[in-house]
Structures are given as structure tokens and as C-alpha cells.
Here is the input.
Amino acid sequence: MRDFNEWISNFKDSIATWKYYTDFEKVYRNTDKIKDELNILNGLIGADDIESEFRRIVNKFPAVLNVIPILIAKRENEIKITDVDRNYIFNFKNPNYSIDDYVKFMDKTGLFDLLQNHMIHSLVDYVMGVETGMDTNGRKNRTGDAMEDLVEGFIRKAGYVRNKTYFKEMYIHQITDKWGIDLSAISNNGKAEKRFDFVIKTQKMIYGIETNFYTGGGSKLNETARSYKTLALETDTIDGFTFVWFTDGQGWYSAKHNLEETFDVMENIYNINDMENGVIDSLE
Here is the structure.
């Protein structure tokens, strides 16, 4: 019998890879898409009469309006502004206000001041910095990807070959079609479609694998623990199929009791420490 408290004490606080903190390729790609418009707007930097220069540039190159939102770290084409006299919904892809209103936007948001007073020297460099800052929002998704990559690395290390003895992102109906196993117990008789992160096929068993890593707490962890507990109990009734869950991350400390309930009924729940100790090699 495994001890839950000992097991969870080995949970890691991070699985950050080299590219976890900033995806610079994405930063460069996003900036490169709009560099022509940004270089045109560079004409505003240090302009004596920046309002008149802005009007001239927009009239000659109206597409430059498309890049205004990213200058205030927004990706949306529409930006809402609440003013004491009027509520605005600026559209920068399909302009819906007069040039005077867009001039007001540039002024009131501080963009004119930023450009006119030489606080920056290149809008391309500036946007690259904005993109770098905004990319931090992607770290949550990269944590999940990093856990999947880590699990897949251990699967390969155990000798399994992709698309031959293990498969990535496989739906229930694909498993049924490929091996003829009845998974109606976990698909609500075919009414629900579930996708497993990985599926391993050995001579004796089909393993449906889920992976996740949580650095922070939240209600989602309790929901995940409960749903995987139900899934584990349902799969226990299926011959030839086993549900395996690889999870880790000290975010679980905030949902420890719910995770323990799942641990108590689920034999095949593992953490990174288990993988490092060869648990995937022991699958039969």
C-alpha cells in the first residue's frame, strides 16, 4: 500500500523547460507580421505636430490603425472606452469613428505623449517588448504542454514507439475502432466523446492516460479530482482497459483532500517521481 502523504510530498513546484518563460519565436512571428505598419508609424516619434502627422499617415496608410491596439497591449480589434460624455467602442480593423475620435484615442491613452517625447526609438522594438510581456499569459498552457512532453519522454524511454505502441490524443471511438474494445461504460453508451492524452497498447492491456500539472490552486483541481475518480471507477468495469493518471504540482496542496479521495480508489495514479523510478516500464 502506498502512503498518500509521502506520495504528495514529492510533488514538484515547477517543471519549467528552457522555453517555458517566453516563447520568443512567437514574439518574433507576431511582431514581424506588422513590422511594415509599425515602421510607418515610426514617423510619429518625436514629431513636432504629432496630431497633424497622425492624420496625414492614417489618411495615406489607413491600415496602420490595425496595429494601434497592440501599442496598449491589446490583441482585440475592438476597444471599449468609457468617458463621462460618451461610451466608445473603437474598431481598428474597420474604422467606425471619425479621424478626430482616433486622434482623441491616441491622445487620451497617452500614446501621443509616448511617441512625441522620445520615450521610445523604434515601434518594432517597442512591440517586441509588449509581445514578450503578453506572452507570459501563455505560461499556463505551456505548463500543460510541458507535462505532456515530459510524460511522452518517459513513454519513449520505456521503449514505446509513437503510432505503433503508443498514440497521442486519441478519442474513445478511435480506440474502439482500432482494437474493438467496448468503452461504452465511459462514453455514456456512445453519447459522450472523451479524448485521452496518450494511449499505450501492450500485449495484455490498453492504457488510457491523462496528464496535468498544477502550479496554483483553484476550484478546477477539485473538479478534476472528482471527475478522474469517477472515470477510474467506471474503467474498472472494462476488461482489457486501464485508466492511468500522471499528475503533479504543488497546486494540489490546496485540494489535497479531494486528491486523496481519488488516490484511495485509483491504483494507477502517479507523479513525476514515480515516472523517474520507472513506473511506465512496469506496465504489462
